[in-house]
Amino acid sequence: MTKPGGSIANYAPFIGLRYSFSRKRSRFTAVISLVSMLGMVLGVASLITVLSVMNGFAGELRGRILSLVPHGYVSAPDGVSDWQALGDQLLQAPGIDAYSPYISEKVILASGRSLRGAVLTAIDPAYEQRVSRASQAMVQGELAALADDSFSVVLGGSLARMLGVRVGDSVEVTVPRLTMTPLGVFPRSKRLTVVGLFEVGAQPDTFQAYVGLAAGQKLLGPRRSVEGLQLKTADLISAPQTIAQLADQLPEGYQLQDWSQTQGSLFRAVKMEKVMVSLLLLSVVAVAAFNIVSTLVMSVAEKRRDIAVLRTMGARASGVMAIFVAHGLGLALVGITAGAIIGVLLATNISAITLFIENLFGVKLFDPSVYFISELPSVLMPGDVLMVTLASLALSLLATIYPAWRAANVAPAEVLRYE
Questions:
Q1: Which Pfam families match (predicted)?
Q2: Can you say whether the dihedral through the CA atoms of 179, 208, 267, 262 is positive or negative?
């Protein structure tokens, strides 16, 4: 130090890092320091890996569900009679790529003794393939089989299994509309022939059913109009803004919805789950960070003589405090860096790791018939890595403040009196 009270930058980081990696510490202090770093490694690596896997699940869920769900809807309370003219008008709007007419209703499907609630959607297969990938999801039969006027139906694979039906079997559909007969008022019902099955590996497989538009108009009504139009936009992410801009081009009375409104609760739940899991795993990092408190408190007790010597040589209290902040951050940075590297490696290779475990032990961790997936999806986002490292660093900095303050308040006279 060149003069009493010299700049902290001259000695604080050097001495602090020297304390962090010195071999002259007591064995107990060294063990506590190692545990703190390993805890930081475990917490940071786990957090990055889990966030990446949850990003992968969210992306997989979004892709599978939205392969059937249109980007947006335009509907009217009294139905749309001239839907082709409306669709052609909407195609002139920027960002609208395609449209398809639809009628949708919640119904009850029955086969033998099995009863299941379902969503029955009447579509025109030629238009439907422009707004969704339903035709590509067919595992038996073809969506085009709904084009004729016959009362046929395409079911989700899981829904068909729950009803115990196959292609060629028939199901009884009951619609919540009343039919007047000489014997009284009865719910409207009709027997439909199963002509195809689809699977996207998500919830629509368990409740979605399709009929042709002509059959749907007879069964669900009104007969000469549709409930509205399904829309496909140029970009899925900006679909809410694109659909909202249509309000100025449509007459009063039309209602607009986008996928974030129809499926928003599901994706908000996934996002909330990611936040809660992040907070829970961040507690592991917090425990590791606050283990640094124990390390620094013991280090302050060991270095009391060194602190006293520094103070008598002219070091300020802020300089001593900076030494022990650097000491704690040195330990934390090693753990955070190692944890981030391990977390990134795990996140980018998690599928290969699960496959190796399955082959090694001869087990199937993810049965596609149960989990809709055969491997762990993972999407590593740089923002998540940055957030985890900054949060860990902030917790580590917070953990160093109290021990560093105690070191700064060591009285040199009392320490040196007994030396």
A1: FtsX, MacB_PCD
A2: negative
